[in-house]
């Protein structure tokens, strides 16, 4: 009897393409709302409203060089054989303003970043002068506004500088500071719960016993969320017991927007997640994706919550998070770039066995070649420790050869390179 | 007189190649030592000692499928016309161990991840059987160890899984958890100070006044450090006053390993940092780099501390941090991949003006093309808000054309892509 049930479940699982699965998840990602954070805590968040220029940039006509501010009309006719002479009447550094107005034949010594004084409309660089006490001469004429950074030439007041939905990086912070945003309106972060299931699991602090393995998925997902700056609630791992799992999930859903479970989504006798989704009335968006690893990844939605049923295999679990959970969380925060960045690379090793499903192979990408990170069975622990990318090998009837151009999803570039660019 | 001094300073500044400047900085980066953190705080840190397998992986002979564990010798001769029959004597899920030993003609129903019971040496998948109550038949023979994940086939006990000096990402955390590392030995983070100089600077919370701009470099650097997970001490910005700047720097150095200043490194009348380095007895490693922007970037070392004198221009300051400060901090932490990752891209726009110095152009890299992020003067605010990469255009006598292949340094891939992979 049991076997018959399992077969029925298998039969109703229709694999859908990865892109379609991603789309289904994103279409159920509701917005989290907004909140205000201090500028110094804004890095890594998603901007909820656009940054506008609250003043022109530059805010005044500025000298881009160290030199002398002059009236361009006074430089007319200057040449090597007929040098024109100026008297220096003042000196200003960045942050100071000359109280004087530059008159005929006069100049103000000026440092980079300082405002061009009244009367002047050009800056002569030191290198273009011969100094002589409180005076200097030049040998060429200057155009009006020559060597002047014009007020507003970079940005006009009111202009949108960074659109809502942007990821706030250090450059964004510089812009926010420039325009006086001591507080920043950002997207609220979803509350995410992590709940591992599996009778085989013991906690990281516990000794192993026969048949047991340590729960590595919960800390891993916590780290994936931590990288995104998103907090989490970590629930105690549950044994494979339908009632206990259902109860734990129902309880967790009362205090989370998104619940990530691991394990229990396959079709074994103790894979209770499908039954749990039925019991709590969540709509299963899909329970089979045409991908390896992670084909049993299941996503359900109900009461405005998203439930990610990731596989218990660490590699499948990792990939399921990056492909489905991460973009969903980013979409909930209104991010306009929620997907993993991708590029093309040269495949570093043969992958000759054809597979009807798309494969996502953990790999080391060095900016040119993507090489499988090792033993790549879905439960391999060693490959998950390596690599910064997923090679995408579309499903089909043929394998792939070293040297083929392949798509690569970039998991993060924080680790960097062992060598300075050649 | 003043002019003469400035000229002399200019003359003794010999630009050195960027790669050499990076190397000089790294050769002065002393190690920070190590500390222990809880596993859940280890993401983003640098591993101080290798992670070793504290047990084999898998820890026991494991079933990779749902099916039946049998003795392979009992399957000999099975065929479609001569099916072999087994009696099911027990059932085990992952995390449980059968108390029974599989004898002749016997089988144990087994779920994925469960240990293969004593006596058995092969697993028959459900799909390969016809069930019949508490028995089943098969139509093909099985090899010894067929469908068995062998104890230790992924990792042997004691094997090094992740080397010291590795960046700890989510996959690393999974490995640490698997092997029971509830605490992790990581590199101590350097104590970094940020001190902006410039009479023109007002704080982000202050209104602008004539000639003033807001201090955007300090919050920007704080965000660059925050992305690296490194804390910082933020000092009050200083006006361009030699005594005050020297005093602030001396005081900051008593409580920091690395001090980042912005501004004051050029050769204007109020650029006091060169004099400060002399006064505090720090060795200037270089004060001119053959790069744009940021050619005046100055790095000094003394008493085991590193002083980064970054330019006051936000783009120069940003680039100086990413090229010099970031790898130095990572090297101090023993990171084995301290450099910005790089790749090749197609230049998205002409850059026809030749420059003898290498240019680092802030750009939007989409996985294929790198397009300058906009107005790219070194003080442009708007370009710093955009882009995730620096295009590297080697100095020389020629310009570059759209379509040329160029080197690109990747500043971070956290932001992601607006589209799922095509």
TrEMBL record, chains A, B:
Catalysed reaction(s) here are: adenylyl-molybdopterin + molybdate = Mo-molybdopterin + AMP + H(+)
Q: Any idea of its EC number?
A: 2.10.1.1
Where on the tree of life does the source sit, at the highest rank? Bacteria
UniProt entry tagged with the keyword Ligase: no
Answer yes or no on keyword Heme. Answer: no
Quote the function comment for this protein: Catalyzes the insertion of molybdate into adenylated molybdopterin with the concomitant release of AMP.
What NCBIfam families does the annotation carry? Glp_gephyrin, molyb_syn
Write the protein's name.
Molybdopterin molybdenumtransferase
- Organism field: Bhargavaea ullalensis
